[in-house]
Amino acid sequence: MRNAMIINEKDNVIVAIEPISAGSEAAYMLHGEYHSIPVREDIPMYHKLARVTMAEGSQVIKYGEYIGEAGCEILEGSHVHTHNVLSVRERVTD
Fold first, then answer.
1. Maximum distance among all alpha carbons in the chain?
2. Residue among 24, 16, 65 nearest 45 (CA)
């Protein structure tokens, strides 16, 4: 049963559409195919979890867009939120 969703195929996070307990699976659909990953910690509804392991400093992608940087290594299936994502202003040139 699906309990998470991916917004854009480029995303390295998925979103819980119901609370997901540690030790269970986060299940989502991408291009009509079912995917699942093991969940490492409790994920509140509408919060993000890592679709893949992200190295410290790597981009966090949601909506197909850069939304911040991993403040530490974030393992697949871990909660992705303000405790491990840095908000970084993009460098905009004129």
1. 48
2. 16
Give counts: helices (H), strands (E), the chain: 0, 9
Integer Cα distance of 51 and 37 in angstroms: 7
63 residue type, one letter? Y
What one-letter code names the amino acid at 33?
E
The per-residue pLDDT for range 32-43, each reduced to its tens digit, is 999 999 999 999
Joined together, the tokens standing for residue 92 give: 């905009």
**In sequence order, what are the beta bridge partners of 77?**
none
Radius of gyration of the chain (CA): 13
In tens, the pLDDT along 5-63 reads 999 999 999 999 999 999 999 999 999 999 999 999 999 999 999 999 999 999 999 99
